[in-house]
């Protein structure tokens, strides 16, 4: 905190007080800075300074695409600090309910369509190798570390074969769009005027057209019903003008979701055991339900139910 205060003093930022705003699943921390005229957010990336250049580049790409992301007021690559526009403390998650969810989800889908206008040139690509790498996290962290299950060679080969099938299926849908990678109800803010703002975009990649849609509609922190979810998937297709029938777009959505949620089993348990953030374990049951739903829908994937101990 002393280093933050010293930096604010050095840049002549006249503040009244500093409060902890939040931390996320990485090594970043956030502070709300109060001034006479309002507030701003200081992002502390001092534990991973190398990520800051990338953050600033991604922020500019999104601004160029007219996506509402926080403006950057000041930054220090040397210290790992960025002073940002404050979108407030109301997340989409805080206000969602059965009555308003379709309205807000359609607004968020419109934002995905806008995000996909951003330049994806040169971004790391969601290729087959990386899709499988992410799913492999579930073997090491969820099965082995969390459940204490060590797969025998036959089961491991079978599971990794299924991971390959899922990755291949994901790659059948349109690729090469800008992917936020974590576009869910905790990373969408609502300001005092009810406008949406997008945060936590620094890990963007180039990838599949349904990735961010899955992050939104199969959110690990908020669940909507199957009928409403499928209606919103079709809304996205129509907004994008995609040449895909209902069955095709829903399969794209299912397979992308399956890849993401298998990965998340590994991510959540790694956050718990490696990073001491045990709160993420409470979100595993919904993640497992999403996996089971898709695995049982497609006969070729039913073995996932057993191999990932979804029951």
Q: How do the SSEs run, as a string of H and E?
A: HEEEHEEHHHHEEEEHHHHH
Q: Reading side by side through the largest sheet, how are the strands ordered?
A: 1-2-3-5-4
Strand content: 5-15%
Through-space gap between termini:
46 Å
State the helicity in percent bands.
40-55%
- Write down how many β-strands occur, each being a DSSP E stretch of 2 or more residues: 9
Q: Detail the poorly predicted runs.
A: none
Task: Tell me the radius of gyration.
Answer: 20 Å
Give the number of helices. 11
So what's the overall shape?
globular
How would you describe what is shown here?
The chain is of the alpha+beta class and 311 residues long. Helices cover 48% and strands 14% of the residues. The protein is built from 11 helices and 9 strands. A 5-stranded antiparallel β-sheet has the order 1-2-3-5-4, with no helix packed on it. The protein has a two-stranded antiparallel ribbon with strand order 6-9. It has a two-stranded antiparallel sheet with strand order 7-8. A hairpin with a 2-residue loop joins β2 and β3. The radius of gyration is 20 Å and the shape is globular. The model has no long low-confidence stretch (mean pLDDT 94).
